[in-house]
Write a structure and sequence with these properties.
226 residues; alpha/beta; Rossmann fold; six-stranded parallel sheet; two-stranded parallel ribbon; 8 helices; 8 strands; globular
């Protein structure tokens, strides 16, 4: 094994918790950083209650930002507001895209400073840039399965408002360690549910139906003592 790919991690964190941070946590931490968000500024997180989104909300709040979490269903409201610390929650299942945009602009007095789209849905990306104020940044994370997925903001709007659109995949070693440190200090608390390998098919089904809050860690074998 090439030791250049190994990362030394703190020993005082449960591996089942830190595992998702090395992937989803790093990606969302990088996305929040790339958005250029500053303390007290407004950031929208689309897919706020999901595996990626629930971490993005927490990293943004840990950086001092005010978060508008967007997700589907009233059941996500308590999670996003009370457990994750978002300032506002908007339910996209009960609002049109125009209503979402106008509501965000009203809450933020002209548009959010940044938006992070963590949902792998074409609809989530389509009008996200329209929620931004002048000089705002759209930070893209989720990848829709449909290759014909596009951001549908008018080019004139992007140019006149001076918007920035950034893609985010993963981060570097320092960013990885920074993302872990937020968890170690208790500023970010990944929501993790451990499920047995035999439930793998059911887990995938739950993922497709957007029933999973936070992340699922699949346990391959049974507990044993050495």
């Amino acid at each position: 094994m090439d030791t250049g790919y190994l990362t030394i991690l703190p020993q005082d964190i449960d591996p089942s918790v830190i595992g998702p941070v090395l992937c989803a946590g790093l990606t969302t931490y990088k996305a929040v950083r790339n958005s250029g968000i500053k303390p007290l500024e407004w950031i929208v997180v689309v897919g706020a209650g999901g595996g990626l989104g629930h971490l993005a909300v927490q990293y943004a709040t840990a950086c001092g930002a005010r978060v508008i979490g967007i997700d589907g269903g009233a059941g996500k409201r308590d999670l996003v507001l009370n457990q994750l610390g978002a300032t506002e929650y908007l339910d996209f299942t009960s609002m049109s895209s125009e209503d979402l945009i106008s509501t965000v602009r009203k809450i933020t007095n002209g548009g959010a400073h940044a938006a992070v789209v963590t949902a792998g849905s074409a609809a989530a990306f389509a009008r996200a840039a329209d929620m931004l104020r002048i000089g705002g940044t759209l930070s893209c994370v989720g990848i829709p399965p449909d290759k014909e997925s596009f951001i549908r903001t008018n080019i004139g709007t992007i140019v006149i408002r001076g918007l920035t659109i950034k893609g985010n995949l993963v981060g570097n070693l320092k960013e990885c360690l920074d993302a872990v440190e937020f968890v170690r200090q208790g500023k970010v608390k990944p929501i993790v549910k451990i499920r047995p390998f035999r439930e793998l098919e059911e887990i995938y089904k739950d993922m497709q139906e957007a029933k999973i809050e936070g992340r699922v860690v699949v346990k391959i074998g049974d507990d044993f003592e050495v």
